[in-house]
Each structure stands twice: as structure tokens, then as C-alpha cells.
Write a structure and sequence with these properties.
By secondary structure, the protein is mainly alpha-helical. It is built from 24 helices and eight strands. Helix 2 runs parallel beside helix 4 (about 65-75) and helix 14 crosses helix 16 (about 330-345). The protein starts with a helix and ends in a 17-residue tail after the last strand.
């Protein structure tokens, strides 16, 4: 923006001011840096002129354009911390209508004064940019009553005019503040009961969502008559995602059980809503997976004792799309679909942890926390084996893809997959080896101290393996190390004399000794604790060999 234009903005010719701002917005809508404003203090002069208009009621005709210009300018972090002051933050909060509520705490309260949609939405966008890009702005917000205003508006969600536009950016701002400021997070959670009001808001949105028709929803080809699903429109889906992200910030993570009865009641109210959201549909697959990803992130912090509420028992006349053992398992099926989507989208090792860790954590907690969910997951992930001609890690089934991750260099992902498959195998070593191959499972079994066999935790015995005829027929020919059958191979010693065989054996021993001497490998044996233990000399390996009959 030119100096002459900034001078005009400092005046009162609103028609000319509007023209300059419209031209600025037209040419800079996708610009994120404004280096030309660093000259002659132009940046400070421009920001000051815009906020002077916002603080002047007579400038109301250009308030929306001034805020839109601030929104664009606030993308550039340059000098933000020196520019922003408490008065400007307060002005934006006022224009957003967040000081517009009385302090009675009554849920029936209404705004004291009407707010203009464009002005309020642009002010919220400015606050989102500033709090995200500038620590000073975020700290200044913490010294205001912005948290009270945001929660107050959530409490009367249904009564807000143009609520979907306002609520989306209210919640974006609330997410940023709770992510960056612990004091705001604690205040909203403990003083303002934010989790309760956000959960109520989720319920309101679900009740407003239309019932799903097969033709309208994404991924709805399996809908059956009588199964009820909600269809979230674009704005509804976006608001729900922001609520879930904010709840993730507010929830106390890492707990195996609720801290008190209030938290227990909150989880009991939240879980049925999450179940409904997992069964809901959206206008596109991308939106659906975004929704489910945010649900999975939140579920990572939910104590496992509440997971059974995701798969309630069906009533006498109830119908569900996915049923297992009398339970509605649609929510778990949705999580499996999310896992498949994440596996497809994970194209490099660098993003494995970010993409896969939350959903694998949730499925682990599900398998450990609820018997019906574990049995359903096992049926989907580890169905009875039929074709064992290929190694477990070769192919495109869910089992194949997970087995490939058993050798991932990303340790956290490898451990999560190992634990998940081991639980689905009821922590039985033989079953784990059967489905993954000993080579893939060896690291996990060594870590658990199960190399010599045995099992981990106790599980019910009512769902033992039912081997298929194809598997039983191929079983004698399966190589347990690779987990599949191998074609017959010619004996490499055929045609050799005894002297040649002895020469090859000595050559092999020498190569083995060289690797040990160079530290390439360390010989080990399975110790009494079921874990590998190094030996000082190769001959020690003979001490624990099984007794062989003498010739």
C-alpha cells in the first residue's frame, strides 16, 4: 500500500477509504508477506489508521473492510509483537461481540446488543490470526474476559443469528487459546465448565443434522433400511471438528479412570455422542475422514473403561448397519475404515507417527478394554487364514499392511502394531507367529520374554481358532519363520563329496567367527526369562541343546 493511500485511510472520507480497502483486499487476498510496509514506518501507520476507524462509531460503514484488511495484514508476523497493544485486542473482542453478554450465567441469556455478521466474523478471524502468530496477542487475551464471552456464546448456540458462521470462528479461536495458554485452558475447563457446554453443543448439532439418505451421504453404499444415521453438512462438520479439537485440549489425558464423579458423568454423556458421530455421514470422504480423525484424537485421552459405550447392545426392535454378537459395532467399523484410509495416505516413514499413532492407540485401547470389540476387530483384521502361499507382509489386506509395520524403523508405530496384533491373538505366542511369521514377531516376543513360548494375559477361551481346511492342508509345509509355505528346493549338498561338504562347513564357521569378532553380531540364547541373552563363546550354545539319541 502506498504512503498516499495510508494518508487517505487516516482521514474521514469513507467513500475513498472503502475504495482503497477494496482494492487492497482484491490484490492481496492470497498474500502473506508485506515487506514494502517496513519502509518509513508504514506498517505502524497503516495498523493505527485501521484501528482508529474501528474505535470510532462514525466509521461503522468501513468497519468490515478495516477488519478484513487487518485479517490479511495479520498473516505477516513481522513486527506484530511490537505493534499489538491491549486496546487493539479489546477493540477486536468488542467488534466480535464477545463483550456482549451479561454475567448472570443464565443459560437463557441473550446478547445485549445485536452484532453485524460481517463485522463479527472478520473480527474473529483477526483474533484467530493474531493469537496464533503473536505470543503478545495471546497473552493480552488471557488478561481479558474473552474466555467468558466464548463460553457464554456456546451456551446459547441455538439462539445465535447466523450461528454457523459465528460458532465456527468462535471455536477456532477457543481451540487456539486452549492450545497455547494453559491458564485459559484451566479456566475454561475448571471454572467455566467448558467440557460440559461443548458436549451440549455437540448434542445440539447432532439433533439439528438431517437424517441420512443413501444417495446424499459419502461412503453410504452399505446403508440398510431402518438404520439411522445423521448427515452433517459442510458447516456442521467444520464446527464439530473444532469442538473435538478443543475438547482434546481440555480433557485430562493419560488417566485410566476419571478423576472424580463430575468427570465420570462427562464421559458417560460424551461417549454416546462420539458413537453417533462415528456413525454419521458427511458430504465427502475427505470431510468424513477429517471428522473421524478428530474423534480418534479425542478418544486417545478417554479412559478405556468408557470404550464399551461405543458399541451398545441393540434393543429388541433396533437395527444397525454393522452388528456383532448383539452389539452395534458401527463405530468400531468406522475406526477400522479410518485406519485403512490412514495407511493408504501414509506414503513415507516421516509421517508414520503423526498419521498412524492416534488411530492405533485407540484400537489398542478398544481391543484391551472391551471383549466384544476385540472379537470384532480380530474378525476384520485377522480373519481365518486360507491362502498361506505368500509371506504375511505381502499383499493389500489389513493384516498384510500391519505386518509390514512390524519392521518399521519408527519404534513407536512398530510397538503399537505389535501390541495390537498380540492382543487380537489373545496374547498367545503360537497364534501371533501363525498370523505374522516368527521373523516379524521375534522382536516383540523377545521384549515380552516369550521367545520360549507361553502366553501373556488370560483371556476367555470361548473364541478359539477355527482353522480353515485350506490352512490345515498347507500347515505341514508352512515355514514358521516367514509365515508361509515355500516351494521345494534342491538340496545344495547333492553331488558333493564328504570333503567338499566339510570344506563348506569350515568356511561357514570362519565367516560366522569373523562376524562375531568384528561385532557385526552377538551370539545369544533364550534365557530362563524368555528373552535373548548374549553368550561369551559360540560353544556355549551347545550347553542347552535338546538331548539327541546317540548313534
Amino acid at each position: 500500500m502506498e504512503e498516499s493511500e495510508i494518508e487517505v485511510l487516516s482521514g474521514n472520507d469513507y467513500e475513498q477509504i472503502q475504495q482503497i480497502l477494496e482494492r487492497f483486499l482484491k490484490f492481496n487476498e492470497k498474500v502473506f508477506k508485506f515487506p514494502n510496509l517496513a519502509e518509513k514506518n508504514n506498517r505502524a501507520l497503516l495498523w493505527t489508521a485501521l484501528f482508529q476507524h474501528l474505535q470510532n462509531k462514525a466509521s461503522a460503514p468501513v468497519h468490515a473492510s478495516c477488519l478484513a484488511a487487518i485479517r490479511v495484514l495479520s498473516r505477516d508476523k513481522s513486527e506484530l509483537e511490537n505493534l499489538i497493544c491491549e486496546r487493539w485486542i479489546t477493540t477486536l473482542i468488542e467488534r466480535a461481540g464477545l463483550y456482549n453478554y451479561d454475567g448472570t450465567g443464565d443459560e437463557s441469556m441473550v446478547p445485549l446488543d445485536p452484532v453485524e455478521k460481517d463485522v463479527a466474523v472478520e473480527a474473529l478471524k483477526c483474533l484467530c490470526n493474531l493469537t496464533f502468530n503473536c505470543e503478545v496477542a495471546c497473552a493480552l487475551c488471557a488478561n481479558t474476559s474473552i474466555a467468558n464471552g466464548l463460553v457464554a456464546r456456546i451456551k446459547i448456540y441455538k439462539k445465535i443469528p447466523f450461528k454457523e458462521d459465528i460458532m465456527l470462528f468462535d471455536l477456532k479461536l477457543l481451540f487456539i487459546l486452549t492450545a497455547l495458554r494453559d491458564d485459559i485452558q484451566i479456566k475454561i475447563r475448571d471454572e467455566l465448565h467448558g467440557m460440559e457446554h461443548l458436549t451440549n453443543c455437540l448434542g445440539d448439532i447432532l439433533s439439528e443434522a438431517s437424517m441420512c439418505n443413501g444417495d446424499e451421504a459419502s461412503s453410504s453404499s452399505g446403508l440398510i433400511e431402518g438404520a439411522h444415521h445423521r448427515l452433517l453438512e459442510h458447516n456442521q462438520q467444520a464446527i464439530v471438528c473444532e469442538i473435538l479439537k478443543t475438547q482434546f485440549n481440555l480433557i485430562r489425558s493419560g488417566l485410566d479412570e476419571p478423576a472424580n464423579k463430575t468427570e465420570e458423568a462427562m464421559y458417560l454423556k460424551l461417549m454416546p455422542l462420539l458413537m453417533s458421530l462415528l456413525n454419521a455421514h458427511t458430504t465427502s470422504e475427505g470431510k468424513l475422514m477429517e471428522l473421524r480423525s478428530n474423534i480418534a484424537n479425542l478418544l486417545t485421552s478417554v479412559p478405556p473403561m468408557f470404550y464399551p459405550h461405543l458399541t451398545p447392545l441393540l434393543g429388541k426392535d433396533e437395527i444397525a448397519e454393522y452388528v456383532y454378537d448383539g452389539h452395534n459395532v458401527g463405530a468400531i467399523h468406522a475406526l477400522i475404515t479410518l485406519l485403512q484410509y490412514k495407511l493408504l495416505m501414509t506414503t513415507s516413514i516421516e509421517n508414520q507417527n503423526e498419521n498412524l499413532s492416534p488411530i492405533l492407540t485407540v484400537l489398542n485401547k478398544s481391543a484391551r478394554g472391551c471383549r466384544a470389540q476385540r472379537k470384532f476387530l480380530r474378525q476384520v483384521v485377522l480373519p481365518p487364514l486360507r491362502d498361506v502361499s505368500r509371506p504375511p507382509e505381502k499383499g493389500n489386506t489389513l493384516r498384510n499392511q500391519l505386518c509390514r509395520l512390524l519392521t518399521s524403523p519408527v519404534t513407536s508405530i512398530k510397538n503399537l502394531v505389535e501390541d495390537f496384533l498380540f492382543v487380537l491373538c489373545k496374547e498367545k505366542v503360537g497364534r501371533m507367529v501363525k498370523y505374522t511369521g516368527f521373523g516379524n514377531a521375534a522382536g516383540h516376543l523377545a521384549q515380552k520374554g516369550l521367545l520360549s513360548g507361553g502366553r501373556g494375559a488370560e483371556y476367555s477361551s470361548s473364541s478359539d481358532d477355527s482353522d480353515t481346511e485350506e490352512y490345515l492342508e498347507a500347515q505341514p509345509h508352512i515355514d514358521p519363520v516367514v509365515g508361509c509355505t515355500r516351494p521345494p528346493r534342491a538340496n545344495p549338498f547333492d553331488g558333493m563329496t564328504e570333503e567338499q561338504k566339510e570344506y563348506e562347513a569350515i568356511k561357514l564357521v570362519n565367516l560366522f567367527n569373523k562376524m562375531v569378532a568384528d561385532g557385526v553380531m552377538v551370539p545369544a540364547r533364550v534365557g530362563p526369562d524368555g528373552r535373548p541373552q548374549p553368550v561369551e563363546h559360540v560353544l556355549e550354545l551347545r550347553d542347552h541343546l535338546p538331548n539327541r539319541p546317540q548313534s
